[in-house]
Amino acid sequence: MLQDVHGQSPIMIDQSLLCDHEPTIRVHPCDWENCTMHVALDQKHVSKHLQQRHGVNTSATSENTQKEPCRWLNCIHAQMKPGNMARHVLSAHLGVRWNCQTCGRLYTREDAFRRHTQEKESCQFAKYEISYENGVREICTDGISEGWSIDQNVMCIP
After folding, report:
1. Beta-strand (E) ranges in 41-133?
2. In angstroms, what CA-CA distances link 21 with 38, 141, 150?
3. How confident is the model at residue 88, as a pLDDT?
4. DSSP 150
5. Where in the chain does DSSP place strands (E)?
6. Which of 48-62, 116-130, 140-154 is the most confident on average?
7. 3-state helix, strand, coil in the chain (%, to 5)
């Protein structure tokens, strides 16, 4: 058992993360009520995690959509449409920031960074660097065999 080897609980990730064929993935503990998994730090994976593990319909954004509270530990934000939940989790709870390498401004969302490059002429061809809050772990996907890695203390959940 992984817990016995390292004296701590394994990092549990969704097995579908390995399908992206990325050499490394960055994950953060999911602090949604009663969740024991880690979630990858991009909108696609956060959205998928919220849908599959927490029953949040992250595609629901219409005017008729009922608002729901964020169930992240200690979240003080008002209710929001479920379609905005993944974006909220990334910016408010996982601390993902888009840093303009030309002027140094930070943005909480990629679309805001893109708008910045369109509106500020000196940053028209700017590149970005993504920064993350504390608690982020980088996992080498090549080191995961048959759904687990003892060296990284990682276990994949179907």
Report:
1. 97-100, 106-107, 128-131
2. 18, 8, 20
3. 94
4. T
5. 11-14, 24-29, 38-40, 97-100, 106-107, 128-131, 137-140, 148-149, 154-157
6. 116-130
7. 30, 25, 45
**Nearest-angstrom CA–CA distance, 39 and 114:** 25
Kindly report which listed range (6-10, 141-145, 146-150) carries the lowest average pLDDT score.
Answer: 6-10
Give the distance, in angstroms, between the CA of residue 82 and the centroid of all CA atoms in the same chain: 16
**How many Å apart are CA 147 and CA 37, to the nearest integer?**
14
DSSP line for 74-88: T-----B-GGGHHHH
Cβ atoms 153, 10 nearer than 8 A: yes
Q: Which of 56, 9, 11 is nearest to 30 (CA)?
A: 11
Q: What is the pLDDT of residue 28?
A: 95
Query: What six digits make up the tokens of 124?
Result: 């028209």
Please, which residues bridge with residue 13 across strands? 156
- What residues does each domain of the chain span? 2-96+132-157, 97-131
